[in-house]
Design brief:
With about 140 residues, this protein is an alpha/beta fold. Helix content is about 40%, strand content about 20%. It contains five helices and five strands, in the order E-H-E-H-E-H-E-H-H-E. It has helices at about 15-30, 60-80, 95-105, 115-120, 125-130, and strands spanning about 5-10, 35-40, 85-90, 110, 130-135. It has a five-stranded parallel beta sheet, sandwiched between helices. Helix 2 (about 60-80) links the parallel strand 2 and strand 3 (about 85-90).
């Protein structure tokens, strides 16, 4: 397999799954010169109340970032991924992934899809991925 200079790992809501995927990624692909980035994409939380929400609901993008960043930072520290390589965004996943691939000059996108249902969700990405795509099962 060719050495990749830039890899973007698409994180999930599950730290354990992300841990397994990052371990496999580092074992199989990452070299000392590879820059690994991590991206978590959350859907927009539409509440109908603007920034006022019921208890337990997330009101805005900043709250989503504050919720996920500590978990992602802890995970990235184990694999020497610097905090500046952690990205959390909110919106339509395919468009956001494509934007980060372009902006960061990503050569390979890595996605963890352990089940057939997870794999099925990736069909639009498979059809439109602007870089090499590696699916970890």
């Amino acid at each position: 397999m060719a050495a990749y200079r830039t890899i973007l790992f698409l994180a999930s809501d599950d730290s354990d799954s992300d841990e397994v995927a990052l371990r496999k990624l580092h074992k199989a692909i990452v070299t000392p010169t590879t820059a690994v980035y991590m991206l978590y994409v959350a859907a927009h939380h539409v509440t109908g109340f603007g920034d006022a929400t019921a208890r337990g609901h997330i009101a805005n993008d900043m709250q989503i970032k504050q919720e996920h960043f500590p978990r992602m930072k802890t995970l990235c520290e184990r694999y020497d991924i610097p905090p500046k390589h952690i990205h959390i965004d909110v919106g339509e996943p395919l468009a956001i992934v494509e934007r980060y691939v372009r902006e960061l000059g990503i050569e390979m996108l890595v996605v963890f899809a352990p089940t057939q249902a997870d794999y099925s969700k990736l069909v639009p990405l498979l059809e439109n991925c602007p870089c090499d795509l590696h699916i970890i099962r």
